Amino acid sequence: SNTIMEKIKFLVIHNRDPKRKEVLVNELINNGVIIEDIEFIEYPNKDELTFKIKKLSVQKKSMRHNYSFPNITGTIKDGWICVSYKHFLALEKIVENNYKYAVIIEDNVGKIKKNIIETLHECLKQLPKNWDVVFDSTRAHSYEFIKEGKLSNEKIVYEKKLGYSYNENGKIVAGGGTKSAQFFLLNQSSAKKLYENYLPFNHAPDVWMNELFRYLNFKCFWIEPSITENRKNHSSSTNFESKNFIYQIKSKIINRILFI
User: What is the mean pLDDT of residues 27-46?
Assistant: First the structure.
């Protein structure tokens, strides 16, 4: 198949923690990715969020229809703003450089279980022509758990519905097409659609993309069994790295002025 030689770029959402970078780069390189195909999205971290970025990228409370995440009175955490804005910048890179295929991967992936390039090419062979996005993560429930279909030895990608999934007790176990936002493959066309509709967002990237996928009627897929693993016991970059008092005051003032 001619998909074998297709280049896949990897855009890493990174909080500039050198240890995370080292772990992830090693995992990627040991699993078939070449260093030239890895790019880092390192800006902005929380204390670099400006008035301009927030004004451009965050929905005002009055605009939000997505009441449960956060509720209508809730302010979007700066950590979510950073990571969602970095995802937007990753999409911009894919579109501007006209990458045919690209993976957006967060730097809290701690382990990759098999050759990633071979696995993604296998996915490309199995996917329908009109696929939009393929997710992988062990952070969220498995495809089997959400009971949308049976797994088979014949394939490794399964279409995921865009609506909410509930368990027997009526509790939400999946919010839509995403399986966290840790690792997902896009093509140029789907990256462009997401990029053009991404701003302003109202939540962390997985929750926001679930909304966008419903709006854009995306064809979403999950890889099963999962090939990436979440890093164990790391502190999330959405927590304040330092309790920087001045930064927190400034952040609250900006949020007030912008009604976000």
Answer: 96
What are the E-state strand segments in the chain? 8-13, 38-41, 101-106, 109-112, 133-135, 157-160, 165-166, 172-174, 183-187, 220-223, 228-230
By DSSP bridging, strand 157-160 and strand 38-41 are unpaired
Over 80: is that where the pLDDT of 113 sits? yes
pLDDT band at 63 (very low <50, low <70, confident <90, very high): confident
Distance CA 109, CA 182 (A): 7
Would you mind telling me the total number of residues written for the chain in this entry? 260
List, in sequence order, the alpha helices (H) in 185-244. 188-197, 205-216
Q: What is the pLDDT of residue 70?
A: 47
CA distance 202 to 207: 9
Residue 119 exposure: Cα atoms within 13 Å on the Cβ side: 24
Cα 215 off chain centre by: 17
* Pairwise CA distance, residues 185 & 183, whole Å: 7
Output the DSSP codes for 28-59: HHHTT--GGGEEEE----GGG--HHHHHHHB-
